[in-house]
Amino acid sequence: MSDLMTIIKERRSIRKYKSDPLPKELIDRIMEAGVFAASGMGKQAPIIIAVTNRELRDKIAEENRKIGGWEEGFDPFYGAPVILIVASNLDARTAVYDGSVTLGNMMLMAHELGLSTCWIHRAKEEFASDFGKEILDSLGIEGDYEGVGHLALGYIDGDMPAAHPRKPGRTFYIE
What does each C-alpha distance from 153 to 12, 97, 117, 156 come to in angstroms? Predict the structure, then answer.
């Protein structure tokens, strides 16, 4: 089996992270994998925002918690010290799909580098709100962007879970 197939088969969504900070070099490599993701008509519509500032990270977690309807104190990013946010410019017809591929590439690269991730939803709602628009404005990002997803990113706190058996009957041929 190729190394890539091993990475694909071993990667899991992790829901408990150590608070240890991550080296910027590793975050940069993960984001590089994201910007090299396939994109419809080569538009490269997705952007990636790495949030390593603890105060902002916690504010985003709180907004996400409220959108998700969880009880106060719940962290939808499971303690991960870094959040990678993917938003995509809606000028591209394939914006959300492109952002999804970006997230997939980053999850695989993180696993290869010995880090863990969990794709967290509700970025769409966050970036449709004034809260999300303020984040984009603070970075000088202009245009019509939709949040596609977040990656909770960090070192796993515990053991890597085993893969669930794959459901049969999910692949087909037309010959």
Answer: 12, 21, 5, 9
Q: How many residues does the chain have?
A: 175
Give CA–CA dist 111/11, Å, rounded.
6
| CATH match of 3-154 with 3.40.50.920 | no
Percentage of the chain beyond pLDDT 70 is 99
The domain segmentation of the chain, as residue ranges, is 3-154
Instruction: Give every CB contact of residue 136 below 8 A, 6+ residues apart in sequence.
Output: 87, 127, 142, 145
Tens-place pLDDT, residues 51-102: 999 999 999 999 999 999 999 999 999 999 999 999 999 999 999 999 999 9
What residues contact residue 51 under an 8 Å CB cut-off, 6+ apart? 57, 60, 82, 83, 84, 85
Residue 2 banded pLDDT, cuts 50, 70, 90? low
CA 117/CA 152 separation, integer angstroms: 5
